[in-house]
Amino acid sequence: xxxxxxxxxxxxxxxxxxxxxxxxxxxxxxxxxxxxxxxxxxxxxxxxxxxxxxxxxxxxxxxxxxxxxxxxxxxxxxxxxxxxxxxxxxxxxxxxxxxxxxxxxxxxxxxxxxxxxxxxxxxxxxxxxxxxxxxxxxxxxxxxxxxxxxxxxxxxxxxxxxxxxxxxxxxxxxxxx
Amino acid sequence: xxxxxxxxxxxxxxxxxxxxxxxxxxxxxxxxxxxxxxxxxxxxxxxxxxxxxxxxxxxxxxxxxxxxxxxxxxxxxxxxxxxxxxxxxxxxxxxxxxx
Lengths: 177, 99
Known about the structure:
By secondary structure, chain A is mostly helical. Chain A has helices spanning 5-28, 32-52, 56-81, 95-115, 136-144, 148-176. Chain B has helices spanning 3-23, 27-52, 56-84.
């Protein structure tokens, strides 16, 4: 059930350009509101790449949970804060020059590690997978059988985060009175 | 299409996110850059899951999404609390915990 190789390349590079462009735009745009919108572009492109890797359910969750719900939260907060001005002065001399240099060094280091790795599975397009690989049914089975403890821990973590957010907001209201 | 392409792309996205954390000073944009880094790791996890031919990596990616959602909730709550107390929304001026 392999797609045509040329078509896969086109889809990959379309997704990759969207993802990298969105990521660069997040950093480069001055207005946080536009940064959030650029992140939405990035996330949707990533969802396309997930589809290329046969991760249907993860792609759907990416669009629904991330690009849908989490980004709406970001948009609300960005609109609530308004335009935040970032000062021009640099607390560390040469930070604007050093930071991209460090990021580039990190990328080069990671790329060398990936290209020089002995993991032979990376040099292929992956094994042939059965029909339904990455489908909601299979992921659900894994979550409720093999990874049940992880699943419950995740729900506990979400509960703690929700309570924490309420505590953060509620204490504030008391202080204002 | 080699899996290596995907992993190198994820390394590039991670580096962009790390650079963003170092360059920008608005806490909101720094949170966005953290999202970039988490998503880069998600891409690597899904790519490895494809290379191995089993779905464990995809479950891992979903759990990373849960952790990212928690981080967003708490982080945005902190930013809103900072804004309401009229604290400067600049990570370099919030340095009371500095050693």
